[in-house]
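Bit of a strange request maybe. I'm writing a small parser for structure token strings and I need a real example to test against, not something I typed by hand. Could someone generate the tokens for this chain?
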Amino acid sequence: MSDGLVWEQAVEELRRPVLIAGFEGWNDAGDAASGAAMWLTQHSVGDALRVASIDPEEHFDFQARRPHVTLARGVTKSVSWPENVFFNVHRDERDLVVLRGIEPSYRWPSFCRAVVSVARATGCEMVVTFGALLADVPHTREARVTGTATDPELVARLGLSQSRYVGPTGIVGALQDRCRAEGIDSVSLWAPVPHYLAAPPNPPATLALLDRASGLLGLDFDLSRLHRTADAWRTKVNEVTASDDDVRGYVDTLEARYDAELGGESSDTSWGANLPTGDELANEVERFLREQPEG
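Reply from user aminoacidic:
Good idea to test on real output. This should exercise your parser:
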């Protein structure tokens, strides 16, 4: 064990592996990032193999991220602790090491060392992290994924649309900085989630992250089912927004700003609409999502 890292399987030889990570928490608006990582472990050639984990006692405040208890006839059956788990995911084109986890409460440098240790031990060529943030974007447009990398040359080589964000960071930013210090190529992909639709899940944002990652890494993901889910989600949201003039007007304004920025025009568009509370919209969309079949 090092920095809380626990190997559960012997390290196997992988084909041109890349480590991909998605964390629940601050970096995960609409559960888009963690949802993308989950999708990868559910769509493997064969079953995804759990190979390592990071001891939660080393990195979590259990009052902030409480374990879950399962009872059977009033008797404690099991306690599930917050987990950060690494999976080997085999695909036809190349292998992946997928980290599905939760942003830790403390000892971030130690946590990042554990992740880098797995990347080095498995021979990963690159570390890719997923992130999602709430933004002033309309749900009616495709989510534009932005990216950061460990150096400008890598940004240019991979054709990333650069993020201009400056401010507080989460475990994704800390991990990328650790990769830079260790000389490991690292890319962080970020999808925007409409702030008026913050309730998870957000299929369009998850789809955008996976689609961008597939092109970046030369992988052939079958995203047809996720496309249909995203289309159904948008259709339902459109039905709800059409019945509320305030919300519809606000979305129109976001669309105008989005289209202006995409066309290279000034982004100083007059907003002209007040932000609605969105309670009815959120409740209706949440009801729609609950009615969807599992998966």
